[in-house]
Amino acid sequence: MKPRTLYDKIWDDHVVDEQPDGTCLLYIDRHLVHEVTSPQAFEGLRVAGRKLRAPQKTLAVVDHNVPTSDRSKGIDDPEAATQVAALAENARDFGVEYYNERDVRQGIVHVIGPEQGFTLPGTTIVCGDSHTSTHGAFGALAHGIGTSEVEHVLATQTLIQKKAKNMRVTVDGQLPPGVTAKDIVLAIIGEIGTAGGTGHVIEYAGEAIRALSMEGRMTVCNMTIEGGARAGLVAPDEKTYAYLKGRPKAPTGAAWDEAVRFWDSLKTDEGAVFDSEIRLDAASLPPIVTWGTSPEDVVAVTGVVPNPDDIQDENKRNSKWRALDYIGLKPGTKITDVTVDRVFIGSCTNGRIEDMRAAAAMVQGKTVHPSVSAMVVPGSGLVKLQAEEEGLDVIFREAGFDWREPGCSMCLAMNADKLKPGERCASTSNRNFEGRQGFKGRTHLVSPAMAAAAAIAGRFVDIRDWK
Amino acid sequence: MEAFTKLNGMACPLPLSSVDTDQLIPARFMKRSRAEGYGGFLLHDLRFDEAGAPRPDFPLNAPERAGAQVIVARRNFGSGSSREAAVYALVDYGIRCVIAPSFGDIFASNAVNNGLLPAKVTEADGESLIAALEDGAHDMLVDLEDCRIVVGNLSVPFTVDPVWRTKLLNGWDDIDLTMSQADAIKAFVAADVQARPWAMPRRGG
Fold first, then answer.
1. Residues near A330 by Cβ (< 8 Å), separated by ≥ 6?
2. pLDDT tens digits, B5-62
3. CB of B17 closer than 8 Å to CB of A319
4. Do B175 and A256 touch (CB under 8 A)?
5. The total number of structural domains that make up chain A
6. Distance from CA of residue A257 to its chain's centroid?
7. Based on the domain organization, do A217 and A330 belong to the same domain?
8. Does A348 belong to an annotated binding site?
9. Is A198 part of a structural domain of the chain?
10. Which of A157, A259, A434 faces B45 most closely, judged by CB atoms?
11. In chain A, which residue's Cα lies nearest the Cα of B22?
12. Are residues A250 and A333 in the same domain?
């Protein structure tokens, strides 16, 4: 048999039907549903009188628009409340398991999937959210879909797909202290550009990826979509199994042993061919800060804001000038001279326990800069609980951080957590697009430790020098 | 879904690259029901200033582009968030075709699922189309049967995935098509339960 990649293997396992033109009907093992991209899908089912093909393979949770303040007395925003109520009703009517805003298991859909053991290696996972790529950290083929496709999966448990190309990104060597998974993925996007992975599935490999924790691998896979690829993958290994074993929805007993044997067979075969290959050296990576309005606009914390005039292509040059105009920075400005007004630690990129720990370690015994407003939003109720058991909430609160309820929050500013026009934010989220964190808000993407240090210093600092 | 064969309509140039779906519809509007239509939110923060007044220099706001059905943009159109609301905003505004050198993957499939044609052209042809529109051309013919775009004397080819083309030409609905394969799905599941018993979810946990 021809050597196959990890992607090839998962794909082959899920093909229900293949047409001569290559269009496939792909079986979907797991479907995550949230309140914003599902209402029209459920409505479509109702109108057509359809039921769910496999409600037990579907899990619903509210995350995008819920407030991160006290929710025990309900949701003030009437539009958000309506959307949340609609998901509760749809889950009940269609027989879907649902975590509401007061459930300790509630959280960002891409944090709770792995946390509950709903996410498993070798499975296909979809959700009406582009950061579904996160689950690829477990060796699951996972990607975002639109609402029409959500309806299609609800009704048929399949998706009409054409196979993507294989790309491998190998990160060799060891990360220096102070450099994290977030810096790896920002460096990759800087290298390939935001459309570099379009039409591909990316497998992340190499010593530095293997050395990452599951949380770190999730951070890398999460931002795969920022490089244009729908899905990212890391081959499952002992770390993957150790993370999953004993999770509420993970297999147990003999089924677990059988699963592990299966998962061990998923690794890319020796000699398998990738359509494109990228290599990076982890040892040479610095802490990274984005300077513009695209995740590809990356620079080392020790660097300066680049000069768009150095770009040959006229359209690209103009678009980068436009970005600088929006972000309010001048070429040549040292990154460590850029001051921030807000700090956001959270999101499906960096809202897990390891991220909370990394940020807390930077702020312990220190105080948030007087001109900065800083918030920490745990990725789920269980992350919050764990952090509180470890006393991290006390460290954050004593330093002057706001410690909030779980949700997507200021990553996309659908709830009350948003930047005011002109405000500049050090954010651990995934998109620095215009207006993403609030109308006219300015976003700089960084790692949790970098964001925490910026909160204390009031500007970006090289955390390798942090004392 | 409404079939798409040939469109002869007002075109508007949007000479920007990487117009992401957060630009196409800012997230804050996605809490609204679509019953009222999403057209007013299309490219909201580019079209309107802080006070909500239309920006006169934004192409879609030009009086002579009123009623635009085609947008011609630069590369990587629709990148970012998977929100189908971005397509709803375009469709509800009246747009039936977006022409660009490349599209975000998820955006493009969402577009097709709503009868909106994502027509791919070369960078050079894209620039020629933008230039023609900026020079005063208004009407554009988009012919999906011939995969050709005509504006004035300019005629350029475009590409679209052949399966998507067939689907658009016929106005097919995916779910109906897949439902006709119910037996194949049933057979797959029966075999899969044997091959991957561990993949069956544990309800409740």
1. A305, A324
2. 999 999 999 999 999 999 999 999 999 989 889 999 999 999 999 999 999 999 999 9
3. yes
4. no
5. 2
6. 29
7. no
8. yes
9. no
10. A434
11. A436
12. no
Q: Taking a contact as any Cβ pair under 8 Å apart, which residues of chain B between 48 and 107 contact chain A?
A: 50, 74-76, 79-85, 87, 102, 104-106
- Classified by CATH at the fold level, domain B6-172 comes out as Aconitase; domain 4 (3.20.19)
What is the interface pTM, i.e. ipTM, of the complex?
A: 0.95
> CA A63 → CA A34, A36, A382, A412, B61, distances in Å?
7, 9, 14, 11, 35
Q: Are A235 and A375 within one domain?
A: no
Residues 6+ apart with CB under 8 A from A131: A110, A144, A222, A225, A348, A349, A430
Residue A351 near residue A381 (C-beta atoms within 8 A): no
Share above pLDDT 70 across residues of chain A, in percent, rounded to a whole number = 100
- Name the pTM for this structure: 0.97
Segment A392-445, tens digit of pLDDT: 999 999 999 999 999 999 999 999 999 999 999 999 999 999 999 999 999 999
- The answer as to whether A277 is a domain residue is no
Same domain, A32 and A95: yes
**A142 and A238 together in one domain:** yes
Answer yes or no: do A297 and A437 share one domain.
Answer: yes
Chain B, residues 158-197, CB within 8 A of chain A, namely 161-163, 174-175, 177-179, 181-182, 184-185, 188-189, 192, 195-197
The CA dihedral of A129, A133, A134, A138, to the nearest 10 degrees, is 140
Is A191 within a domain? no
Q: What is the reported pLDDT for A283?
A: 98
**Annotated binding-site residue? A425:** no
- Residue-wise pLDDT tens digits, A158-210: 999 999 999 999 999 999 999 999 999 999 999 999 999 999 999 999 999 99
CATH of the domain at A126: 3.30.499.10
Q: Which amino acid appears at position A458 of this protein?
A: G
Per-residue model confidence as pLDDT tens digits over B174-199: 998 899 999 999 999 999 999 999 99
Separation CA A21–CA A328 (nearest Å): 49
For residues A445 and A422, give the distance between their C-alpha atoms in angstroms, rounded to a whole number: 16
Domain membership of residue A193 (yes or no) is no
Confidence at residue A1, expressed as pLDDT on a 0 to 100 scale? 84
Q: Which distant-in-sequence residues (6+ apart) come within 8 Å of A44 by Cβ?
A: A50, A148, A151
- Tell whether A159 and A98 lie within a shared domain: yes
Element (H, E) at A144: strand A141-144
B179 to chain A: nearest residue by CA? A156
Å from A68 to nearest chain B CA? 16
Please give the residue range of the domain that contains residue A64. Answer: 6-165+210-221+230-261
